[in-house]
Amino acid sequence: MAAYAAGRRHAREAALRPLAVRRQARPAKPRRWLAALLVLPGLGIVTAYCVLGALGVHVEPSALTSFLVPAGALLTGAGLVLALPPVTAWLAARVAASTQRLPLTLAMRHHETTPGAALRVVSGLVLLVYAASLTQGVLVELDQVSRRTAPSQEYEGPYEGVTAEQRAAMAKVEGVSGQAISADLASSQGALLVATCAQLEKFVRPGSMRGCVGGRPLALRDPDVPADELRTPGSKHPIVLRDETGRAVATARFTAPEETVTFSVAQPSALTSAVLLVPPKALPPGLHPTGAHLLLSGAPDPEAVRAVLDRLAGIAPAAQIDPVGIVIESLSQLGVIKGLLGTGMVLGLVIGVAAFLVSAADRAMDRRRRTATLTLLGMRPRTLRAAHCAQVLLPLAVGIGGALVAGRLAESSYLVTGGGAVFWDGEGLPLSLLSGLGVLAVAGLASLPMARRHLDPELLRRD
What we know:
Elements: H1 2-16, H2 18-21, H3 32-54, H4 63-82, H5 84-98, H6 102-113, H7 116-146, E1 153-158, H8 164-171, E2 176-184, E3 191-194, H9 197-201, E4 218-221, E5 236-242, E6 248-255, E7 260-262, E8 274-278, E9 288-289, E10 292-298, H10 302-315, E11 322-323, H11 328-366, H12 368-376, H13 381-417, H14 428-447, H15 457-462
């Protein structure tokens, strides 16, 4: 639809102004006021949020920010394209007035007289670089959403549905650092935790555990959880013990002692309801509490979580292992979204460079008469190639430079209003700079063969 509308518009211009379409008429000056009308409000919005982020002000997501940030990004992108011709013409006039090199003078005078050519050639790449910065911001925000702030990730699975050999193999899986057994108390809402002090330390915040003594039952206390009668010293907790076949064979009674282990865990956690810590040696060999659950601990990174889940599924395919606090379907969807956005960035850059080369070749065909005239006047091919290269690189460098700066501002404003802890994406800046330099290098090399030494008599005869 867009191609049809553009074709209709240019066909109408060709019918009304055939001389201008043939590029023999002086083009109209670019409208600076229109570019300023779009750039200034857009940059004002995104810069204001960047200033708030630099001052450490946390802007909560709201309906206002959901409207202003996309509006600022759209206005900035549109104004960036429309501002390219007047900025290129102004810069070309300054460079042409100060330079003494013939190729650079030819290129700058060409841009000064026909600034609209810059918009035609490089606007697509400028928008792609700008959109790539915004996409990078979306990826950073998605990474913050999918990444837990907890120091460790807990995994909870059934105990009775897994053999002893499988439990031993799951505890040794790469990425698993700790293991424990949790069981609900029959007469209360609390839970019993079967683990050593070293194993418990793998589940809690670093440095938060106090008063743990190995070899005997201890009361558990999280200061963030309200105290109740279950944690009162002297309270009785009967536990029904089962063997590997699931048959109840014995009953154990534990009394909450006065010695208390204090710890802190990141919510949500399977240890929140634990009121009593029992060392594994306190249970008879081969027996476990009724309703026991196997708890594992590992790194909180989404990649590590997916890898651990895959390894655990390979050991016990029938067991349902759930990462505490994470919805597996959402984690998979976020991975797919990240992959699609990353692939779109790469494909968009490749397609944009290809479209740029086609547009640059088209512009070179339009300049054949000018090239033939300069060659007839004695201009050396090396000088013409240098002029062509400068004609391509000047608007592209200005556009990509502006797109990188404006894109970083728009990306940071999105991160500031996204509610995450990261306001400035420092990791994506080197990649953006290298991509921009790579595009400039490809464009410069592709423009060198455009100036041909062959003289077409037909081109000269038309003039």
